[in-house]
Specification:
Blueprint: E1 4-7, E2 15-19, H1 26-35, E3 59-62, E4 65-68, E5 75-78, H2 123-131, E6 135-139, H3 147-158, H4 164-169, E7 178-182, E8 190-194, E9 197-201, H5 206-216
Parallel strand pairs: 6-7
Antiparallel strand pairs: 1-2, 2-5, 3-4, 5-9, 6-8, 8-9
Helix pairs in contact: 3-5
Length: 232
C-alpha cells in the first residue's frame, strides 16, 4: 500500500494525510509534499516520536496536517473548515454536519459528561463537548465491541496532564475533558475529534492518539469543564 497525500476538498485546501508506514520511502515523501503545495526544503520537518512508542520515528508537518510516518496502521488527520453556524438546536434535531465525524457546527444545548460510554452518545451532545475543548474518542467495532481499543483510548486520555479548569468546575472524578464513545457512523474503526480537527485510523495507535490529544486539547470556542449529562 503506497503512502500518499492529497488535498482535502475545502475552500482553504487543507492537506489531508493518509499513510501506511511499511512502504513509505523518501521519494514518496517528497512527492507527497509536492502534491500538497510544499517542498522538501521548507515544508517538512523531522523529529523523533515518543521514545516509548518504538515504531514512531518521523513526523512531517504539512500545511496544518500531521503525517505520522511510522504509525502502526493507516492514519489520517484532517483540519476541515469550521462550519459557519455554532447554534444550539433542540435535542433530537437532525443536523447536516459537513464532516464525518463532525468537528464543529450546530449542537444540542447540553453536552455529554466527560467519561467513557458503552452505548453511542448522540452526536449533537459530543459536538458540544468539542466546543468546550474536549477530545472525543470514537470507535466503530460492531456488536462484538473492541475492549482493546477502549483501553488504548483510556490510556491516551490518562496521558493528558491534569486540567486546572476541571479541578475548579469539573465535579467529582473529572480530571480532563475527554469522552469515549461508540459511533457506528464513523468511516473507520477508530477516530478522535477535537474542535476543528479529525483523526481517523484503522487501529488504535497509542502514540499518535496521545499526540493528537495533547496537540488539540482545550482549543474549543469555550474553555469549560462543567458537568454534562448522561441522560440521552
Amino acid at each position: 500500500m503506497p503512502a500518499f497525500v492529497k488535498p482535502a476538498e475545502s475552500s482553504h485546501n487543507p492537506c489531508v494525510t493518509r499513510l501506511c508506514s511499511s512502504f513509505l520511502a523518501s521519494a514518496a515523501t517528497a512527492a507527497a509534499l509536492s502534491a500538497c503545495g510544499g517542498s522538501t526544503s521548507n515544508s517538512q520537518t523531522q523529529g523523533q516520536g515518543p521514545t516509548d512508542a518504538g515504531h514512531l520515528d518521523e513526523v512531517a508537518h504539512l500545511d496544518g496536517a500531521t503525517t505520522y510516518i511510522d504509525a502502526s496502521c493507516l492514519v489520517e488527520i484532517q483540519q476541515p473548515p469550521l462550519m459557519s453556524s455554532f447554534d444550539h438546536v433542540p435535542v433530537g434535531t437532525m443536523v447536516d454536519w459537513s464532516t464525518n465525524p463532525p468537528s464543529s457546527g450546530p449542537h444540542y444545548p447540553i453536552w455529554a459528561a466527560f467519561q467513557a460510554y458503552t452505548t453511542p452518545v448522540p452526536r449533537g451532545y459530543y459536538v458540544h463537548d468539542l466546543e468546550h475543548g474536549a477530545i472525543v474518542f470514537l470507535y466503530n467495532c460492531g456488536s462484538a465491541g473492541c475492549p482493546e481499543v477502549v483501553s488504548t483510548f483510556q490510556a491516551a486520555s490518562d496521558s493528558l496532564p491534569d486540567d486546572p479548569v476541571c479541578d475548579q468546575t469539573g465535579g467529582p472524578g473529572v480530571r480532563v475533558r475527554t469522552v469515549i464513545t461508540p459511533d457506528p457512523l464513523i468511516p473507520t474503526k477508530v477516530a478522535a475529534v477535537a474542535w476543528g480537527w479529525i483523526y481517523l485510523a484503522d487501529c488504535a495507535d497509542l502514540p499518535t492518539l496521545e499526540q493528537f490529544a495533547k496537540a488539540h486539547y482545550g482549543q474549543g470556542r469555550e474553555d469549560l469543564c462543567n458537568p454534562g449529562t448522561t441522560a440521552f
